[in-house]
Design goal:
This protein is mostly helical and about 160 residues long. The chain has six helices and two strands. Helix 1 crosses helix 2, helix 1 packs across helix 3 and helix 3 packs across helix 5. It starts with 16 loop residues before the first helix and ends in a 9-residue tail after the last helix.
Length: about 160
């Protein structure tokens, strides 16, 4: 079986949706303008995840992001002197941004050695429906469910 090269910086018209997602993810991982270091860490993490699962690396990333993506969130709304947590739907671009942010933050907080290994472990956990980022999504959905009585305050 031929191994497809992982291209993380391809934002041309011919790039697939997964390649664009990976390039955007690299930009979110990047710190202090060090894109090459971010690209290397993400590529290493994707290769580790690909080895462990046996699926193509970009499919692993897409599956993990799709699992983490939240559908609703709560926003504070002040009405008549009281503040209510109002559940609102989220645009797809914000869903992806939140998924990236949660995945990166929970990866950085893991206790393993090296960011690539931390990210690979969090990606694998997200693919399997567990881990810190999945818990954050579930907590967000629970909070929205608990406050659905205030949905009529939506603006």
């Amino acid at each position: 079986m031929a191994v497809k090269e992982i291209n993380l910086d391809n934002l041309t018209k011919t790039a697939t949706q997964e390649e664009k997602l990976a390039a955007k993810f690299v930009n979110c991982v990047m710190k202090q303008g060090k894109k090459n270091a971010a690209r290397k860490a993400v590529k290493t993490a994707l290769l580790i995840a690909q080895e462990k699962i046996g699926e193509p690396a970009l499919d692993v990333l897409k599956k993990a992001i799709d699992n983490i993506r939240p559908a609703v969130e709560v926003k504070s709304r002040r009405i008549g002197g009281s503040t209510y947590q109002v559940p609102t739907d989220i645009k797809p671009s914000r869903q992806t941004a939140l998924a990236f942010r949660w995945l990166i933050n929970f990866s950085r907080n893991r206790s393993e050695k090296g960011f690539a290994h931390k990210l690979a472990s969090e990606l694998l956990d997200a693919c399997n429906g567990r881990g810190g980022a999945m818990k954050k999504k579930e907590d967000t959905h629970k909070m929205a469910e608990a406050n659905k009585a205030f949905a009529h305050f939506r603006w």
